[in-house]
């Protein structure tokens, strides 16, 4: 299988005017349920039910930022603390273990997890104007790339059916491979920053070079 040429890098999108401007829990919940059609979970803070409209890939923020070029401009991305959450097509969480094996990343166990059916995430808030991700530094989930438009948001989510670029949606395989690559690089940089922790086993990990579809 010959991979397609990666798309050019795209800048982070600004929050659209349709995102509620900090109207409290009721306004935020109403926007998710009525405008986006995303089910929420009762209680405070507002949480989103995962697995029906989308699944989530959770990675270190540094690795996530490096892989954003594999997403469509409308693909939602959120930050919470030092973690980035990328929304992908529903059912993708079940595909992740098999994809990591096929891409030969399973032996390295990258810091890449998936949330699928039955999972919940904190509903991200709109990022303050001019300061995307500011609240994420103090633990609140915020949108870096907020969802745009009502029910059509799902067409921009990475999916297995997009392999080879068919249909205009981002390809989940390329995204997972890029995320795993950057997760591994982040791990190695952190290990190198701690000389005493860079043991023989760490060097063995550093010498593992899985086949990669992307750089």
Q: Overview of this structure, please?
A:
- The protein has 215 residues and is α+β, with helices and mostly antiparallel strands.
- The chain is built from five helices and eight strands.
- Helix 3 packs across helix 4 (172-192).
- The two termini are 17 Å apart.
- Mean pLDDT is 78; it is low at 1-17.
List keywords for this structure.
215 residues, alpha+beta, five-stranded antiparallel beta sheet, 5 helices, 8 strands, 14% strand, disordered N terminus
Topology:
Elements: H1 24-36, E1 40-41, E2 47-49, E3 55-60, H2 61-66, E4 77-80, E5 83-88, H3 92-102, E6 113-115, E7 120-122, E8 142-145, H4 172-192, H5 200-206
Antiparallel strand pairs: 1-2, 2-7, 3-5, 3-6, 4-5, 4-8
Helix pairs in contact: 3-4
Radius of gyration: 18 Å
Given the C-alpha coordinates, what overall shape results?
A: globular
Q: Can you count the helices?
A: 5
Query: Which structural category fits the helices and strands?
Result: alpha+beta
Give me the strand/helix succession: HEEEHEEHEEEHH
Measure the end-to-end span.
17 Å
Overall mean pLDDT stands at 78
Number of strands: 8
The low-confidence parts are 1-17
Helix content: 25-40%
Give, in spatial order, the strands making up the sheet with the most strands: 6-3-5-4-8
What percent of residues are in strands? 5-15%
User: Biggest sheet, open or closed, and with what strands and sense?
Assistant: 5 strands, antiparallel
């Amino acid at each position: 299988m010959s991979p397609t040429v990666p798309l050019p890098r795209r800048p982070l999108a600004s929050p659209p005017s349709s995102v509620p401007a900090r109207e409290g829990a009721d306004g935020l919940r109403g926007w998710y349920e009525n405008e986006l059609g995303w089910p929420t979970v009762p209680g405070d803070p507002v949480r989103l039910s995962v697995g029906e409209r989308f699944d989530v890939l959770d990675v270190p923020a540094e690795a996530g930022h490096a892989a954003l070029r594999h997403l469509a401009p409308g693909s939602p991305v959120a930050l919470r603390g030092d973690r980035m959450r990328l929304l992908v097509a529903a059912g993708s969480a079940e595909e992740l273990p098999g994809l990591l094996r096929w891409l030969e990343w399973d032996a390295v166990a990258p810091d890449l997890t998936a949330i699928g059916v039955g999972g919940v995430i904190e509903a991200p808030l709109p990022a303050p104007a001019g300061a995307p991700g500011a609240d994420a530094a103090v633990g609140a989930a915020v949108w870096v790339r907020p969802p745009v438009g009502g029910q059509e948001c799902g067409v921009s989510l990475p999916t297995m059916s997009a392999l080879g670029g068919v249909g205009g949606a981002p390809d989940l395989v390329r995204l997972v491979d890029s995320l795993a690559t950057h997760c591994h690089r982040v791990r190695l940089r952190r290990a190198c920053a701690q000389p005493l922790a860079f043991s023989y086993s760490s060097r063995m990990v550093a010498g593992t070079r899985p086949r990669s579809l992307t750089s």
